[in-house]
Write a structure and sequence with these properties.
The structure is a single chain. The chain is about 35% helix and about 30% strand. The protein is an alpha+beta fold and about 130 residues long. The chain has one domain: Trna Endonuclease, Chain: A, domain 1 (3-Layer(aba) Sandwich). Strands 1-2-3-4-5 form a 5-stranded mixed sheet. The protein is globular and about 45 Å long.
């Protein structure tokens, strides 16, 4: 399954979860339910995945933790905030670069409408 095929499922599931649960819960709740729904649709999902970082020739075992990685191809960073900031968008770009993945989503479950809380980020992905 390609990154773009996975992305369609991710967006659909995110909207479904947002409609079902509403706004105002902790990110961890959305993470658990989103992972459950993605797995129900046959996708492999890993939660809180440690990603190592190399700096100055030294490998650091845990540079950051990815909220969700789907099919070892798409990284999902979840938020539950009133509005996204530029730093949030830069965060997903940095995660893509450091993980070597080509597609990521910043999903803000704090948005009144989920479609306004979805940011798609790419790192060398061919459309």
């Amino acid at each position: 399954m390609s990154e773009n095929e996975i992305s369609k499922i991710v967006v659909d599931v995110a909207i479904h979860v947002h409609r079902a649960l509403g706004v105002g819960l902790y990110e961890s709740v959305y993470e658990a339910v989103l992972a459950y729904e993605l797995e129900k649709r046959g996708l492999s999902v890993k939660r809180q995945v440690p990603i190592s970082v190399e700096y100055d020739g030294v490998q650091f075992d845990e540079g950051f933790r990815a909220d969700l990685i789907v099919e070892d191809k798409v990284i999902l960073e979840l938020k539950s905030v009133e509005s996204l900031h530029a730093a949030h968008r830069k965060q997903i770009q940095t995660y893509l670069r450091l993980s070597g993945l080509k597609l990521g989503f910043l999903l803000n479950f704090g948005s009144a409408l989920m479609k306004d809380g979805i940011v798609r980020a790419v790192n060398g992905l061919k459309e």
